[in-house]
Amino acid sequence: MEISKVTVIGSGIMGHGIAETIALAGYDVNLEDISDDVLAKAKAEIDASLDRLVKSGKLSDKTKVLGRIHYFTSIPESVKDADLVIEAVPEILDIKRQVFAQLDQSTKEDAILATNTSNIRLTEIAEGVKKKGKVVGMHFFNPPVVLKLVEVIRSDYTEDEVFEAVYDFSKKIGKIPIKVYKDTPGFVVNRINAPESLYFCLVLDKGIAKPEEVDRFARSQGLPMGPYELMDYVGIDTVYHSLEYYAKELSPDYAKCQVYNKLYNEKKLGLKTGEGFYKWVNGKAQIPDAQPTKNVELMDIFALEINEAVKIIEEKIVSPEDIEIGVKLGMNRPFGPITVAKGLTNAEIKSKLESLYNKFGVSVFQPAKSISEGRLKSLISEKFEPPVRGQQTEQEKPSIVESSDPVILERNGKIAVLRLNNTKNNLINSAVLDALEQQINDLWHDREINVVVITGNGSVFSAGAQLDSFFSSTFDFLEFSRKGERIFKLLSEMPKITIAEMKGYVLGGGLELSLACDIRVATEDVQIGFPEVTLGLIPGWGGSQKLSKLIGESRASYYVLTAERFDGKRAYEIGLVSRLYKPQEIDAETLKFAKDISERVAPISAALAKRLLLRSANTSLDDGLEMESMAMGTLYGTEDLKEGISAFLSKRKPNYQGK
């Protein structure tokens, strides 16, 4: 797959830098943006950049380079002959999707469609694109003319030939590419940086140190710029949006940051607005005099970077060697986390991570599996085997259904599966609640369905409520709480057997949803908990009432008031879940379990038994026994009772009709 004609969409800092890089390598390149005025600014920036190269002796003549760059204000016109199109528009999903929709219509059938996104998963950007196999990630680092790194990212759909062609082209334009085999938020360098961005926010939130004290410490360690000065330089809005995205896609822990949110809302974005953590004058941060803090250690940062690097190796996203190359080149450092890890013991790193977890209370800081098990050195030294595509069995794949519906309904015989479908972590917002209520009402009188399974689309059940929802008043927020309570109560009273399939994260509102189900099954490693009190909230969809009834007041008080998380094994021990499955098997095993129940249990009997159990906590024994005898009388006249007795005597499976 030969690449000779290239178009870059978007002429901002990254876009014009990428175009200049390609032209410097001897290729003709089209640069497209919305207006001639915008392009004129980009052209001036390119001209100034080339002047600096000439002045430094790295370029003899800029005229030929400038002659290779062609400017357009129309996407169709700029891409009609392109072999490779690189999208470099702002890091806003809707804008990127609009661009890719046009590229899908305007490019040649075999044109490669690359995105320079720094965080957003390719699968999200390519939603609705017909040529999904041609979509690939090509993430340059700022400034593109200077920094050598390019992350080449493969999505679930990217054709191998496309992946290799972009990797080879990156080399031809003088870059050092690394291969990212899986489509994950932040990819490699930004993903490894994510936990420390959260760390530096929490340092301020908890009053551990001031920005200037930390930045003075960083400079004392030989770094050219401290973390807060760097965030000001990059833009607080960039950091804010990154953590917001990671909170939805990686872990809700990333939503715990407060200080970045405050600066963003006050429009104190750093250099670009003149003030962020510091005031900026003539392009320089005015950092107050301060002594370097002793409350932050380099080992904190090293441990967090190593931990995240281990996670992405475990996930088969990238090799240890490419992690080292990526961090060194992308962050302009002499060494990366793999080199640091080789110089430390597993015990040292594990101890530091456990200390950070205990100090800050965020699970992102907990040791990765290989570190917990003492296998760090073997993981980073053994040969990396890239994931082989197409060799997963259906049972091993998390059940992912392509749909834009907030709750997806699937029917399987007498079973209905309801999949939450909102962000990777299946966060619950008003649209999800509305869809869930509609599905419950539709299934309520459906005699063809005996069992309803509640799960999440993908590998996560639900990490809770979507905290970025807007409420105009206290009363609106109160009504949102009542809405969730009402719908979850509706689910608990549904005349069907309901099963919560708990996997990945089951937090906050997600846990409350599972508590509204009759039966809970889980993976051993699922993360369960109520984080609300750490966010200034309480469990507001019935959790404060239901949990104590299921596991006892003492245990419920502990988990609600400490916000401590626990895993599936612990949930099984305390009686919260009834069955445990392996992560790669839970979708298939839950369906198998539901199928068995749907064929063995008489639906009217199950519905009446549910009502008796629900009322038992608030009913006297005498009243409960009276209701029980009335239910028995009701069942005596049903066709299902006759079928059940007949099947028992005939030693065959019953065929209940719910009559």
TrEMBL record:
Pathway: Lipid metabolism; fatty acid beta-oxidation. Transmembrane segments: none annotated. It is found in: Peroxisome. One of its GO terms (molecular function) is enoyl-CoA hydratase activity. It comes from the Archaea. Keywords: Fatty acid metabolism, Isomerase, Lipid metabolism, Lyase, Multifunctional enzyme, NAD, Oxidoreductase, Peroxisome. InterPro entries: 3-OHacyl-CoA_DH_NAD-bd (IPR006176), 3HC_DH_C (IPR006108), 6-PGluconate_DH-like_C_sf (IPR008927), 6PGD_dom2 (IPR013328), ClpP/crotonase-like_dom_sf (IPR029045), Enoyl-CoA_hydra/iso (IPR001753), Enoyl-CoA_hydra_C (IPR014748), NAD(P)-bd_dom_sf (IPR036291). Pfam families: 3HCDH, 3HCDH_N, ECH_1. The keyword Lipid metabolism applies. The keyword Iron does not apply. One of its GO terms (biological process) is fatty acid beta-oxidation. Residues 186-280, 303-369 form the 3-hydroxyacyl-CoA dehydrogenase C-terminal domain. Coiled coil: none annotated. Residues 5-183 form the 3-hydroxyacyl-CoA dehydrogenase NAD binding domain. Monomer. This is 3-hydroxyacyl-CoA dehydrogenase. It comes from Thermoplasma volcanium (strain ATCC 51530 / DSM 4299 / JCM 9571 / NBRC 15438 / GSS1).
